[in-house]
Design a protein that fits this description.
The protein is α/β, with parallel strands linked by helices. 18% of the residues lie in helices and 26% in strands. It contains 3 helices and 8 strands, in the order βαβββαβαβββ. Residues 10-143 form the VOC domain.
Length: 158
């Protein structure tokens, strides 16, 4: 099932609820996600993540549609008051991580919603996070060269 937009075969589909599908579509489009109209309708919008992560598909569902896919009797988590998951995306370098964070903030997201000092440092990672319009937390990270390990960790004291 390759995307008509790119010919890319997604290998992972992340399905998330949204309170406002039009706002969510505008937000993720501003971040450079590639819309897949063939897999979208009035209640669902599908995207491929930006390079180098095009094998991941994000499917945003209006809350009423998302509820039809969940376990009977369960409720949809409010991402602003509970943690349902952390979505981490690998980028090639620090500049790409920071650029994506700026895009998220420019589209209405919240940059570095919380800071965990030195997070990832012991693994040689540079990591930042942002919150989308529905409160879902996303992390962008890259692996740093060993000689830069002392500079790794979350830089988010903006």
């Amino acid at each position: 099932m390759s995307s008509p937009a790119t010919g890319t075969n997604p290998t992972f589909f992340l399905n998330l609820p949204t309170a406002s599908l039009p706002r969510a579509v505008a937000f993720y489009t501003a971040l450079g996600f590639t819309p897949v109209p063939a897999w979208s309708d009035h209640s669902t919008a599908t995207f491929l993540l930006p390079a180098p992560n095009q094998t991941i598909s994000l499917m945003l569902h209006a809350n009423d549609r998302f509820a039809r896919f969940t376990r009977p009797g369960s409720s949809i988590a409010d991402a602003r008051t509970s943690t349902q998951g952390l979505f981490s995306i690998l980028w090639n370098d620090r500049e790409a991580v920071d650029k994506w964070l700026e895009k998220a903030e420019g589209a209405g997201g919240k940059k570095d919603p919380y800071v965990m000092e030195g997070f990832g440092k012991e693994m040689g990672m540079y990591t930042r996070s942002w919150e989308d319009l529905d409160g879902h937390i996303w992390e962008g990270f890259c692996m740093l060269a060993k000689d830069l390990e002392g500079e790794a960790g979350q830089a988010g004291k903006a």
